[in-house]
Amino acid sequence: MRPTKRNELVQKALEAFYQNGFNATGMDTLVKETGISKTSMYKHFRTKEDLILAVLRLRDENFRNWMYRRMEELAKSPRDQLIAMFDALEEWFSEPGYKGCMFIKASSEFQDASHPIHKQSADHKRMLERYVTELATKAGLPEPDKLARQLLLLKEGAIVTAHLGHTENAAQDAKTAAITLLRLHAG
Amino acid sequence: MRPTKRNELVQKALEAFYQNGFNATGMDTLVKETGISKTSMYKHFRTKEDLILAVLRLRDENFRNWMYRRMEELAKSPRDQLIAMFDALEEWFSEPGYKGCMFIKASSEFQDASHPIHKQSADHKRMLERYVTELATKAGLPEPDKLARQLLLLKEGAIVTAHLGHTENAAQDAKTAAITLLRLHAG
DNA sequence: AACAAAGTGAACAGATCGGTAAACTTTGTT
DNA sequence: AACAAAGTTTACCGATCTGTTCACTTTGTT
After folding, report:
1. Is there contact between B43 and strand C, defined as CB under 7 Å from any strand atom?
2. Which CATH class for the B58-186 domain?
3. A26-41: per-residue pLDDT in tens?
């Protein structure tokens, strides 16, 4: 990504929105934190909503790239990569400043299913589902789509549980459950 | 709950916050939607935060009562009640106006783990965990706490997935996975 | 050197935010 | 009948919200 002012804005806005929330982060705050003039912001993005959509696009790209790469690095076979997803999650959860999933939070603040931000968040989850389903298919597992959906329920559950913070090792619990599901699933 | 103005306010505020979000719902909006004067509101609650905390207390009471009762109605044995939790979830998800879990959304808008609203949301999840753990214990299952945490990961995952709306029957997927986990768990 | 694109600062809208003040009315208790 | 608690209306406060306007400066290209 070329280091244009526009990209710099999106990058900095991502961090601010992630840490403080969308509605709670005003455009004036972004001016302060990015050092970019408000005039310039509104030249790149007609509305705050447009900026948020750009932020979510960047986040989708960053997150999926990171997650896919990490799964490949941690395991060779498709089957093991499915399990390695939860090791990757654990790494994510233990990062300082972890504050849950940006898309879940976006859908929490823009709740209407017809809202562009909500729809784009759902798209992100759909793309993850497609990837995991393909992995399950490559692994030769029966009913790969069903298995993928089950594993992803564990993933989403771990993400919000790790953020709520009432439990330790949500990622490990999810991994254990995933292994069980895979074992019974494959026979 | 006696139908005092205060309780009426909390009840109406619950609906407004649930449908529109916490930050996105101003006190003036509540004045319009409840018909209760702002002066009166601030006589009962010193700040908006206090009102939100009261709303979350009511929600916790309502939700846990409903869920526990529904689990008991749908199944007799503790083991079957664990599974019935996901049937109850399905009923919830299919209600008109379903917009996810109020506590997950609260923790999405008040992200700091030290924030009272965030802490109270975590408390809700903790109480649910205790209940499910007790059920698993009564069912005579080994490692009841571990199993409970796994089942609750499926629950949380189903809740956010049903709200994101990129998948059909999140509750059914979670139920299927829960049955698998229980089967392998009990041997 | 000249020119357009991109960026700047600062002031300004109009609406809404959470919260307060003062004077008045309703309601329930004794 | 008297009194206090609870509720009301109305106006207001300063801060902040998203978004705009205008006059000006920097920067890259040719």
Report:
1. no
2. mainly alpha
3. 999 999 999 999 999 9
